[in-house]
Amino acid sequence: MTARLLVNVALNGLTLAALYFIVASGFSIVFGLLRTVNMAHGALYLLGAYIGYDVAAAHGWWWGVLAAAVAVGLLGAAMQKWLLDRMQGQDLRQALVTIGLSIVLGDLLLARYGGLTYQFEPPDALYGSVPLPAGLGGYPTFRLFLIGVALAIGLALWLLMYRTRLGMAIRAGVDDRAMLSAMGFNVPRLFILVFALGAAMAGLAGVIGGSALSVAPGEDARYLMSSLVVVIVGGMGSLGGAALGALLVAFAEQIGLVLFPHYAILLTFVIMIAVLAVRPRGLLGRA
Fold first, then answer.
1. If 0-12 CB within 10 Å is exposed, 13-18 middle and 19+ buried, where does residue 130 land?
2. What residue ranges are annotated as transmembrane (predicted)?
3. Which of 161, 285, 178 is nearest to 233 (CA)?
4. Would you give the DSSP letter of residue 164?
5. 284: number of Cβ within 10 Å
6. For residues 48 and 66, what is the distance between their CA atoms, to the nearest angstrom?
7. Does residue 22 carry a pLDDT above 80?
8. What backbone phi and psi angles, to 5 degrees, belong to 37?
9. Is 111 exposed, middle or buried, given 0-12, 13-18 or 19+ CB atoms closer than 10 A?
């Protein structure tokens, strides 16, 4: 490997890990904190990407980001309130209902947008490339921006969950819902807020990921699978685990594409199997 190839693989791994973290962080807080099996998370990602594309084409990229996060967040709140809350603790029913919802959403989006691939146009400030030192060429500005977005989201979620009264109530509601209700907290409303936040993260990731790569049918299944693997490797409900899992999975994919491109996906599942054999709850998971 040349030095330039090594740097590109490392940067591609970091940017892919940033994207996986943004997608998986919403899945992790819903799956890990609420114990809700949301198999429609990938469909929410794709819905956010298409909503963001339409709004960005009419009003600009930043408005597309905002519209995708708000619209998908509201849909997530409706899902939790009218569908999933009444199935709390019934993992199989939740999985089947959300799988059905993802199929319906996917078909509706396919009917509306067809099988074409769409590409966002980010703001002018995020176009172009940043020169790398030592004559190693350049790297796309937007991908470096993606790393910054992932760091900002990770810090904001950590502060929300571990440094605010709302986060304390959410974590307490997961461990003892009846006691928190007895103390006067509206636990169903808290859980709706958490699910809406997780869905909004998926919608936001749809625009960010669609801008870094593209938007096309089938992306929902890809990012649902990536989120599942990241959460399983890192540990349910752990933001640090989601970040660590995203790094491991993304670097495994990038290194695999360089060394054995036809079998790169196998390396991801080898990592998952190895982690589960040693730590069944994930690297940073808890009982």
1. exposed
2. 6-30, 61-83, 95-114, 142-161, 190-216, 228-251, 258-278
3. 285
4. S
5. 19
6. 10
7. yes
8. -90, 95
9. exposed
Q: Tell me how far apart the alpha carbons of residues 63 and 56 are, in angstroms, rounded to a whole number.
A: 6
Label residue 276 left, alpha or beta by phi (over 0 means left) and psi (-120 to 50 means alpha). alpha
φ and ψ of 214, to 5 deg = -165, 175
CB-count exposure of residue 40 (10 Å: 0-12, 13-18, 19+): buried
Under 8 Å between Cβ of 31 and 90: no
Q: Look up tokens 């937007």; give the residue.
A: 142
Please state the pTM of the whole predicted model. 0.93
Dihedral pair phi/psi, residue 139, rounded to 5°: -140, 140
Distance CA 200, CA 198 (A): 5
The answer to whether 237 touches 33, Cβ cutoff 8 Å, is yes
- Could you give the CA distance from residue 10 to residue 22 in angstroms, rounded to a whole number? 19
| Residue type at 159 in one-letter notation | L
Secondary structure (3-state) at 38: coil
What is the residue whose two structure tokens read 């509201």? 74
201-229: per-residue pLDDT in tens?
Answer: 999 999 999 999 889 999 999 999 998 99
CA distances from 160 to 94, 103, 176, 244 (A): 26, 32, 20, 19
Please state the domain extents for the chain: 26-120+139-217, 219-287
Six token digits for residue 36: 């809700």
The 10s digit of each residue's pLDDT in 39-64 is: 999 999 999 999 999 999 999 999 99
